[in-house]
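Need tokens for this chain, all 117 residues.
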Amino acid sequence: MSEATAMADNEQRQARRLALNLLKVFTTYRLPGELNRWKVGGGTQTQSKIYTQYGVKQGGYTLVDLYTNYRISQNLDATLNINNVFDKRHYSVILGTDSGNFFGEPRNYMLTARYRF
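Here are the structure tokens for all 117 residues:
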């Protein structure tokens, strides 16, 4: 877990472009028995609201990712990642009212094959 805080001389929290609270968790699990060629997993990223001194705000949000891997042979495996499963629209960066604000990645899929020599 990560925490970012800034205090002014008067001990008031200042506008931050960083979340005050951020939690990232990811895990994988290899299935037992005859399914041991499969590995499944998932992750989540949760953060509190962020805002700037210019009035740009974003409420807290949670992103969910999923993962599956299949070992085709001793040397070859395939992996499917699904990121931002619920297609949550969010800013990855906020700066000002007229520029510097960038949306995070929408739901996306990535299929990867890996061969080990």
